[in-house]
């Protein structure tokens, strides 16, 4: 762990230069910060080293991809070997067929696959495919769910409650200036089956969701909710799409659909499927995916199935598939131990803290409530205090997602968990009362 006061001289100089040449000084809005952003020099296992020599126990893991820890040897070896054979072909190669075959064997609903580079592309492809396959114009998404930053999807992710409209019929609130008005988009509240049924009609091509909501807390569906949504989609003739960019391969070898026992028509994957390399995938029922096969729905991309990323995906999926008991036993054991340790630390400090989620990913909330079931519950938690906690933890050498989300990897040890709980207890003592 690092000392309580970090040296950030090199980081500060780099940030000053970056602000001259990079818009906002950072390359993604997710990295905006009130102070100096984290400038990483290298990463290995469960740790990051910044350019000033500070060491961090890392629970961000690249926003989730480093499921096997940073730089897992098998992935590094596969990527290194492929780079010497070719970086981009814009042509077919044997590894993509092997990866597609394994992915279809691992994921319950996957019969066909198309590869992309990042999650936003795969989400965009899924929405287009749903409309093209069904001939219907509307997509129904849920308030608080994130499906990438492209114009058609960046609505009602974290809207202000004043702008969001009625709780049982949320408005489509754009996420940025420069976005056109929402076209054929319906927004529903999460975990409210009655409201969903009321908002569905025969123009809805697809219902799209994060099956475990990880971009707004770590909110699992209520018991029976997903199965009821599945049945509602079937009755309505709408497709069900799971955005498994975060949950895919993190919660089980077959993703949240295996973990929860409900299978969608289409799924999108990314992040953990390639151990940190940039690969995403659209997968689903053969008859739906064959709307792409026939050319009715277009899907393209120069870097689709680029060989370096596919080499990483092949190495990662092989480990997740063939060592599943060891991998997922470790992830759940470490995650749940950390969750319990954080709860105990908060209880001893007299701090109202809710720790919730499956384990391989979970959320900490400052709230007196016993549960958080949807975006509006999340919005009412003390997010300003969570930002203070994030800063206090970072100062002490623990890196979590600023909104309170924690990712676990197989590289995190029992010692890492114990050290994190100790630092967490110390950080809580620095926070203002209330």
Automatic annotation (TrEMBL):
Xref: InterPro entries: Aminotrans_3, Aminotrans_3_PPA_site, PyrdxlP-dep_Trfase, PyrdxlP-dep_Trfase_major, PyrdxlP-dep_Trfase_small
Sorted UniProt keywords: Pyridoxal phosphate
Protein name per UniProt: Glutamate-1-semialdehyde 2,1-aminomutase
Keyword Cell division: no
Entry cofactors: pyridoxal 5'-phosphate
Family: Belongs to the class-III pyridoxal-phosphate-dependent aminotransferase family.
Annotated Pfam families: Aminotran_3
Organism: Nonomuraea recticatena
